[in-house]
Amino acid sequence: MPSLIPLANVPPEMVEQLLDRAFGPGRHARTAYRIREGTAWLEGLSFAALDDEDLLVGTIQVWPVALTDPEGRAHPLLMVGPVAVVPEHQNAGFGKALMLASLDAIDQTVDAAPPLPQVMIGDPEYYGRFFGFSAESTGGWHCPGPNDPSRLLVRCVNPAVLPDEGMLGPWNSGERTGLAN
Known about the structure:
With 181 residues, this protein is α+β, with helices and mostly antiparallel strands. The protein is 22% helix and 28% strand. The relative contact order is 0.21.
């Protein structure tokens, strides 16, 4: 069973080294980086996984992003990811534990209202089966870079509240998402 700690307790350079090992040196060119460009990950929703020897083996970050509809209205979302685990510890449950911790933290952030919808780029079968993400509502959504539309996923209590069309990008409003950073 992994030990999970707040990601804020890990030195930033260690997080960057882990992300480089998990995704390779070209990771900054990925579309997900463009979507969250200029934002800071949300500390209360982002975690690190330690192995039995207390070594950093995985991380998950959650970011404030928005879907801007054709009328120019920004609809705040939370972008989940990257979910990163070093190669030698992949398929050992670290990623799943990180996802569960982050989604639980998201679900607990709001008292009487449902949490903000969550978006991610990932395997629809895996993230759908275990975590409730789906590409059913994202067909008209666009990204600032190449993407496979079947891998653009959302998790939302009521997907009918989401715009059918829009462009994903950083949440750059003066208003906050209600989640402390």
